[in-house]
Amino acid sequence: MPAAAPDTRPLHAVLGSGPAGTALARELARRGHPVRLVDRKGDGPAPDGVRRRAADVGTAEGARAATAGAAVVYHCVNVGYHLQVEVMPRIQEAVLGAVEASGARLVVLDTLYPYGETGGAVMTEDTPWRATGRKGRMRAVLDERYLAAHREGRARVVLGRSADFVGPGVLNSSLGAAVFPGALTGGEVLGLGDIGLPHSYTGIEDVAGGLATLGERPEGDGRVWHLPTAPAVSTRDVHALIEKRTGRPLNVVVLRELRPFGPFDEEFVAEYAEMFYQHTEPQIMDSSAFERTFGIRPAPLDRTLDATVTWYEQWLSRL
């Protein structure tokens, strides 16, 4: 029997196997790309069509190993809040060095943090970067370095910004494990700040689809894009939509000031305090530029919540 022909399709390497990285790897494989999913251990389950690899991308050697042979690299690595200011710049240096050496395109999953407080103004890609907190300033510095690398011709880079995640597999989000388990079991459900304000939530499948599209469409390189995000509604309205799906009223505990709650311990709370403004002013993210340019609409919030409730029901059944 003749040997199988080698796979000559361009390899896509996803760094980070959290909810975004895992969803992205699955989406890329669905689109027919060979996919490598990288984290420090490399031993978890892999979606169909995805190969896992262990590497520490915070080191130059690990980043080179993780990205070897890849045509497109997706940086979806994140670390604990208390480590971000120290560790994220180190990861950037290693990953940028690797793609500069190899010529791979780099797609970076980004946050809204560089904008800082906006007074409730709608955030577009033209919103000024005015962060004052440590993490927001750090993210702004990293983003400028990414864009400078592209401008200077050292690497081909594009950034995709997301609002707060929601969706299957999303645990450590303000609309994650502090909300859905309590909603399904009659326990306490977290609400942060003023839950009557409009707040954008980006579905994890839209994060994956948006990043995959940026990976396939190099004409988007060299700038920041807001990933497809459903129109903002209030968190109170989100809670009402969840109630319809669970068939029970939610026992919402609203924290006007931060304190440990559910999966968010004292260490996390201390580090997140500087970001609490996101829950005391409207957080409205406009993704219309991405939608117009690439012809992709976000999933309706109803559909995202349907999938999220189903996932959490299955997750709770396995505990």
Automatic annotation (TrEMBL):
<protein>
    <submittedName>
        <fullName>Nucleoside-diphosphate-sugar epimerase</fullName>
    </submittedName>
</protein>
<feature type="region of interest" description="Disordered">
    <location>
        <begin position="35"/>
        <end position="55"/>
    </location>
</feature>
<feature type="compositionally biased region" description="Basic and acidic residues">
    <location>
        <begin position="36"/>
        <end position="55"/>
    </location>
</feature>
<feature type="domain" description="NAD-dependent epimerase/dehydratase">
    <location>
        <begin position="16"/>
        <end position="220"/>
    </location>
</feature>
<dbReference type="Pfam" id="PF01370">
    <property type="entry name" value="Epimerase"/>
</dbReference>
<dbReference type="InterPro" id="IPR036291">
    <property type="entry name" value="NAD(P)-bd_dom_sf"/>
</dbReference>
<dbReference type="InterPro" id="IPR001509">
    <property type="entry name" value="Epimerase_deHydtase"/>
</dbReference>
